[in-house]
Fold M14 family metallocarboxypeptidase.
Amino acid sequence: MPSSSRVLRTAICGTMGAVLTGSVCIAPAHAQPSPPRTGFETSHGARWTSEAEETDFLATVDKASPRIAIDRIGTTAQGRPLRLVRIGAATAPADPAHATRNTMLLICSQHGDEPSGREACLSTVRRLAYARDSATRHFLERTNVLVVPTANPDGRAAGTRTNSQTIDINRDHIELTSAEARTMAAVIRDWAPDTVYDLHEYTPTAPYYRKDVLTLWPRNLNTADTVHHEGRTLSNSYVRPRAVAAGYSVGDYGIWTDPETGEPIKQTAGDDQERILRNTLGAKNSVGLLVETRAEALTDEEEADPALNNRRRVLSHLASLDGAFDYVKERRGRIEAATTAARLAGYADRGPVYFGGADNDPAEESEILQDPPCGYRLDAAQYGEVTDELALHGVRVRPDSGSGGGVLVTLRQSARALVPLLLDERAAYHLTTGRPADHC
């Protein structure tokens, strides 16, 4: 498929009635009608795309391309729409376990004050919608590409990290207290995406934390080994090399490095919390990756020209996204084998569950449930409080005749590791305290 960064440069030329030839914008004698542009592109990066411009942009793309369908999948507390763009995808499979296509999900700008990921997603939607090359057509014949272009519309409008209820959405993927996290949980449940790519931005800490692009896979120890391996492969063998090839520096998110030796000296973030999307994805057996691009200007030129800084923020995301698309194209079989094996392993109901620890921080003995119960019993009142959340997580329950209208939640299911994280009192963010069952 064409390079995302070149596509954006072409779009910027298009706003001037010109075409990109080499690295130069040249005005043709008879300019042809061009695809729609975002507010970011028409301003050459001087401002971010507004809500109204996004709505118009998506409507135009939807109308122009038969590959595209746009669903309103939720509503924020302030009444703004949460949208899912489906590219090459008809409807969610009746049974995701037997889906005939690989599914890739992009979640853009969960934090409202991190706008560059949203801009990268919007231009990616247009690129896939209008592409005429055979490689893109073939890719979309075999791949469902799903995009949540603005995961936090209220935060975007206010310029805040949190949503309008002051909830950090990326810390809400277990408890599901926000409309935004609930909506994303439903998409993940219904589509069971093989790969989920989560776009963010960060503010550097000089001199230790100044890379252009930082990535991180699920560190939570409940991630199956096969899925964990694929997450690291996506990061280190695809996303980072494409960013480096485009001229950007790369590193691990949450790890300060010595500016002279490059050696890690301090971990400041990137922990194992199961409520963070990339870790929730690991427990749900999807290959997940967090990608953070540098928001702050670190050159004199970017300090003098905010639009230049903004364009670099978006272009670095687009270069990284090229790596993600290459990953899905080249490792399709391995990805599907990894996610399928992890989902089937849950039915075997074997192995420990972890309430702490990470792939670079071994769990303490007290954080390991070495011999998990076969399930958890919830009485009627408890189940009434968490019915919706369990359903959104895709957790299956069955009536429990011995608990007066309650239910039994067995571990013998696809999202096996998720059950104790939701129902065991030792889990940091559990929904309720279930009663361990010895016989199921």
Observations:
- The chain is about 40% helix and 20% strand.
- The longest strand covers residues 68-75.
- Residues 15-19, 21-25 have pLDDT under 50 and may be disordered.
- The first helix runs from residue 4 to 14.
